[in-house]
Amino acid sequence: MNCPPGTSRKLAFALLASIGTIGMPTASVSAQEESRAATATQPPVNDGLPMPGFEIDPATTAIVITDPQNDFLSPDGVTWGVVGESITNNRTVENLGALFEVADQTGMPVFVSPHYYFEHDHRWQFEGTLETLMHSIGMFDRPHALTLEGFEGSGADWLERYKPFINNGRTIVTSPHKVYGPDSNDLALQLRKAGISKVILGGMSSNLCTESHMRSLIEAGFEVMVVTDATAGAITEHYNGYDASLVNFRMIASAVDNTANTVKAIRAAYRSQ
Known about the structure:
InterPro entries: Isochorismatase-like_dom, Isochorismatase-like_hydrls, Isochorismatase-like_sf. With 273 residues, the chain is an alpha/beta fold. Helix content is 36%, strand content 12%.
């Protein structure tokens, strides 16, 4: 980046940010203001990176939620022991509920990309690290693609509080993704067929399915922003999945922001129609 004489690189990035289209209210990015990295609950300020921004266009913008299922989001789910801390700290369950609710009230399209494993998936001959773990603990298990036997209340089922929004006849539930990203399901097709080119992304889990969806959708030509407190990640003794994803959300997506600001921006966009 070529900077005018006497212009610091930090100031140059701030100037670049100021001319971008910012579609939701965020903190000021003046060069004099204290710098701050993105967090789960706050957008970044003067963090040394451009701020491309994300403008919500009701005609072309949709919410995409990954894996809003019991095995991630319920205290009874098989992963709660490692994701519960991040979910609780970020208020992920409540914030995903707020996204579903504002979509229901405004009419914004919602797409859910679920994660299911059927009996034949357990015969795979090789797996990655957390695929092995998911299969070993029976995560998202269903007996067959053509039956809902045992689905109600299972780990693969939706969190109960989201069911009125997902089962409302308007929300689009795609075919299941099988590893982490939407490369193995029909999400991109469904978005394209609905005329969607801009995605507000949340769901579980941050550095796995959510980040993989962000990456894949961007590679497919969609504009993506990530709602940073509407996701969460596994935290173990040696690794913090959420912290890992937050860096990549900031470096790759067009924008990152919290649920409160995103909900306000959605309402504003629909009021201005």
